[in-house]
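fwd from M.: "can u put these together and see what the complex looks like"

so here's what she sent:
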Amino acid sequence: MRSDLLTADGLTKRYGRFTAIEDVSFTLRAGEVLGLVGESGSGKSTTVRCLVGLTKPDAGTVSYDGEPLQGRAAWHRFRREAQMVFQDPYASLNPRMTVAEIVGEGLRVHGIERTAAGRRARVTTLLGQVGLDAGDLDRYPRSFSGGQRQRIAIARAIAVEPRVLICDEPVSALDVSVQAQVVNVLRDMGRELGLSILFIAHDLAVVRYLCDRLVVLDQGRIAEQGTREQIYDNPQAPYTRSLLAAVPIPDPAAERERRHRQKESAR
Amino acid sequence: MTAVLRVENLTVDVGNLRIVDGLDLELRAGERVALVGESGSGKSMTARALLRLDPSVTVGGQVWLGDRDLVTLSEKQMQRVRGTELAMVFQDPSTALNPLRRVGDQVAEPLRIRGVSRRDARRRAAEMLDRLGVPRAAERLNAYPHEFSGGMRQRVMLAAALITGPRVLIADEPTTALDVRVQEKVLALIEQLAAEDGIAVLLITHDLGIVAGFADRVAVMYAGRKVEENSVETFFAGPSHPYGRGLLNSVPRVDRALTERLDTIPGTAVKPSARPPGCSFHPRCSAAVSRCSAEAPVLVTIGSGQVACHEV
């Protein structure tokens, strides 16, 4: 049995009379990839903001490695051991910093590599791991495509040797061929480094490739959670079923049949 | 079947940069054609050039709408074509609508410009919104865009585009910003209205899943050029161009057994400013031979389709 690494317990957040999330509980276990899925407005982002301390929940707790996240020491440790990759690779990298500075910053801040030469060597290795090379060290984000920027963001996140990677829609803004590259990189990194990954996404086809287990959010509440096989082969919640039934299939005959079924069930 | 829109050797230049390089495309009445490609492939620039939306770009070639070449029309004549015979909807319904104007006025505007009375225009706006599945359409004419959800706003956009009964609708990523369940409804509505009114639709998208369900034909663009065109049946059974194959293979699918890795196309899409000599795709192509880097392939007809590749 894998041990629990990051646990949300009864998270609730209200904005005025609007309840963004209510009683959201789930656990990211060591070494697994957990998908957090749902449509816009389902509460994915609020849940992530509560998990990483950007928003204070009205009720509920977050625990990391068996301890509630309370007090400076606990948060300090969590912020080093949990890293994030964001959706928009055009907004999440400082345009005035070189790749070497962006990826090396965490190494410096956390005192992992204290010398500039040591950092440079380490950053070069990291870039290699995500499919970039040493020639990219002194370039600025503007000279990279969206997919390359997302690789830089992944290199930055894994630089400080985290145990947890929280990826908030990391491939939603990318073209399909590049999306596939980044999904593969995430998967390889997760396995090589033994990372636990929380993968937030709305695209159920991508999630299926990457995630061992899924949590499905619907209007701020958990509709269903289970293993990949349970969710895709035998979904229980009507909401999960309707989400799955709406995923388009790149095959005209299958797609016609799928859409026909949808029309029938709408009657 | 005659073409309602025939594009011949279309070029789009921004400054001295050729963004779209010699595109041919034909839309027949009631036909649904998808134009696909990655960001930077020139698909959106093509759509905008057909309507001549950007005054700062130079459009060359011919765009035949019936017996008129839109490229040669004056701006004033073009204004009459836009929104009456040739309509367009955009990706983001929250920025394409004016937040300060009532929805009914925005849907009715194309009719008002053409001299329809306020009362008639409002009545027809309500009818159009109703056809597009907006609940209590007549009452909601006085609402503002922020009172609508993303999917409902896209229906409002569609209503404004379709209210004058255009012959051609150009839809640029119309559902990309929407959740899948909403996306499906919006696409079904476009399909239904286009069929009922005999409108030809040019769908610009990067999502091949949508193309499979929506389009009759698909044209693939790479670095500003069309590299392949086929019926959807032929394309999805096996694209003719290595780029089309690469795109299709990169799509994660829920209908297939899981594989260890997703197939990818190596490298990144080239910008039109850095188009390599020969075939633009050759640096990323696993089937490339020496000829591909020296000589640009021309489009040749194969069966009912076209492909530009030396290795076909």
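replying to her w this: The radius of gyration of chain A is 20 Å.
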